[in-house]
């Protein structure tokens, strides 16, 4: 049977929690199995136990073991458990999924809770505190928890003797058969005992009673919350009597979460303070998502406003909504008290999704969502560029503030090289998962191509059309930009920005060469190093073609371009300088050089930008097959007629290297792609083609007439070209935490056939898709037995699925293995649809929450719609 659950208690510093089971209508189920009796006192050395768990997803796996020790320290890898003793059990190694299972003895009573494993040793939590919490919950009482903001550990008795603890004390503990004493490991600053207790002090008595175990320390603290107590400690020199007041542990736990600017904030909890030895105060950025709140850091101020609570943080962000960028002072958890200034843009798209969650601080009960703002249309404001007179952004684009004399004298910065005026660095912020890439921040460089129209070019592999981009041009001008064109088969992107400001030295278009570079041309190479302007005079050794990137830097991008020209320079770029501009002797731009010696020639740059400026991008069509070169002699050995040797002036021909699969072309054998891998291309539309640049990348015709050589025969086929919509990712859907899109061109090339236009690229941690193991990189082909092949069909079928009820998803993996996943929708994972029109460069990204009318959240403990 399956039930709904609700968390009613989770311990602040121990690895256990209690949940409540109920049916769909909110009633307590009456067919529950018999309860397990908690008997922590029955745990002793040599006790035989059994565990029932599901390691590695195996259901009802029974393990056997014996208790070896009942007073071990918490293993170092468990960061959610402190101030307790663990039970060590010798048994077979436990796999993933075993944590949380109960260990029962031969009587069937539970004696411990499995928490961690190391080889053939399992570590288990004693059930004294869980039993105490359960009794309080059954009586409807609050679970009182106290602390002195100290982390205690066990120290063997013989080590305490080395610390010169008196024999009278040692004999008293030995008479109680105590093997370990309680020692202070971490004493937090500003805690109730920081003025008297030091690290390494041994705790002997609490209010006059001997302390033989950590359990007694916890029970004593829990019974004296907000009351004064007296500690007797040995500090290696003398016995000291210390008076202090016990703090409420629940009050030192994060009970309020705020999500703003793509980052989750909460106050510093006791566990975080213990692990970093910092005071329990301040605001912590819990996730490492967006600048300028890189986490985990303690946020001290925002644009000069000191912050000490989450309400102050919300007010400060709202008060600075009209500011283009904000400055925060952060204190890194590993910086030992040093504050670091960070500067970054306030991004409207990132701040679209915001929510707040709370829970009662007196008890670890369920989290309650108190407010939620869904995303709307993401508008891309393009304010006028402005000069940063006192602030200069580095290559990280908005992540740090640098003092620089170069700003006051930009002529020295350019050292007479006008091309550096047109270089820019950028930071692309992304809040969707596209093509398997979910890095929230991408950095890179580019070149301003048309200053009057506000066009710039950069690497295509760094962007998606959903990105929000911040540019710094020539190290002195900042602007927001957006992607208006991503070339499907070339590593080239065109950005749009707007210039309205007046500057001492306004932007100008770069001087363009009259032709592209050729072998043996003397050129200059200017790497994209805005603050270290390097101008390398060299000679083009060779212009070649490569089927794919070979440089290690390019493996970071999921975009794999088709075969394109490569440029080999006599003076090769050094590491870190592999991306830049090639300039001829007259100082004119002749091409872009990208990592892997990948060359984007001038004629390609001109052709693409002219199509963008004329508004004809939506009408362009592209070839979907990749080519590579072959020696003419090899082609003749395959049976190519000798007459072609008289016609072909070069010593090479082209052959088909990679062919994609399309769902519309893979429904039957008769409609497969007309080309086959290994086909030798002879003529295209009546023209002889032996070089890659002769074939081109962009077309206006719906098909190409190709004469090819296959299996010792010359045949003519019509090869269809694809529109921009067919090869571009313009729609992304998040369904139950899983990111869905149509398969990209790279996926279509790798997978034969393509089973549907719905492809999973990843999922959010803890989402229903993650919990029910919806596979990544798979094609969804059915919902509840009904065939779906396109994204509109999928959305129509999942919109009416009720919350809390199971449904089936049929999918096909990249290995052609069919899989059925049974899952259900969650109230906290609505279906969100991102869409961007490719027909107009002025259109914004549209965000639609499909399940908003069905989504439920709790306010003040009540469920609302």
* Strand-residue proportion: 35-45%
What's the count of strands?
58
Please identify the structural class as seen in this structure.
mainly beta
| Overall 3D shape | elongated
User: In terms of quaternary structure, what is this?
Assistant: single chain
| Main beta-sheet strand count, sense and barrel state | 9 strands, antiparallel
State the end-to-end CA separation: 28 Å
Share of helix, binned:
10-25%
pLDDT < 50 stretches? 378-416, 549-556, 664-670, 853-865
Tally of individual helices: 15
Give the averaged pLDDT, no decimals: 80
- The value of Rg in angstroms is 33 Å
Pfam families: Trypsin_2
Organism: Colletotrichum abscissum
InterPro entries: PDZ_sf (IPR036034), Peptidase_S1_PA (IPR009003)
Protein name: Pro-apoptotic serine protease NMA111
How would you describe what is shown here?
The strands form eleven sheets. Strands 17, 18, 19, 20, 21, 22, 23, 24 and 25 form a nine-stranded antiparallel beta sheet that branches. The chain is 12% helix and 37% strand. The protein is mainly beta and 865 residues long. A hairpin with a 6-residue loop joins strand 1 (4-10) and strand 2 (17-22). The chain contains 15 helices and 58 strands.
